[in-house]
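Quick start: read one record
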Amino acid sequence: MGCKMRQAFGVTDVGQKRTRNEDFIFIKNEAHGPLRNIFVLADGMGGHNAGHIASESACEYFCEYLESKDIGFIYIEDLLADALRDTNTKVHRKAGEHKEYSGMGTTLTACAYDDKNLYYAHVGDSRLYVLLNDGSLRQITKDHSLVNSLLEDGVITEEEARTHPRRNVVTRAVGTDYAVEVDKSYYELKNVAKIMLCSDGLTDMLTDNEIVNIMNSKSGNEEIAQKLVDAANEAGGLDNISVVLIW
């Protein structure tokens, strides 16, 4: 049985306050190595050296790893996680070999789909969402951030989390350490209308309600992706903003 082909579109923007875009996206809605498609979003860490180098290099290493593999694996989420761990090692090595890259790091969230499921691997605080057929939005990934840890422990409220002064501090990143713990799993596509990858430049500026209202609008899907970025910029655009929308 053939895979139901979905359309995909991505947009990345420097925002209103930054002078350099440290986000990087990769979209390939056709075969890549053993996968039918691959979508990657990386957000270079602005508080470290060469965040833009980290994000672009991470996407490059991640995709190269996938291309080097054949179809002899069982679980797609395991393949994505292996690629992410390999990417971490290479970014960390690159940071150690070049003084100007010392301490660089990046988030990385990647996904792929087949006939039935959405598969993903994830490190950091970029996010993977699905918009369900009933119009509701569901966050699939868990933020690896200080604020999310405080939120889960009940130390702060969701409202306090949105304005917390350390909301951009991540607890896991690609490249900052020799090894990294990777989240991986899959999500059944049965009731999914759209899939979205985004950087925290979107989610720090817009609430989930604001995001879902735009995603449920009557606009075309490429226009929806641009509207999300525009809305984040209108709300202040404090960081780089990236969106990958798959429908």
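The chain has one domain: 8-246.
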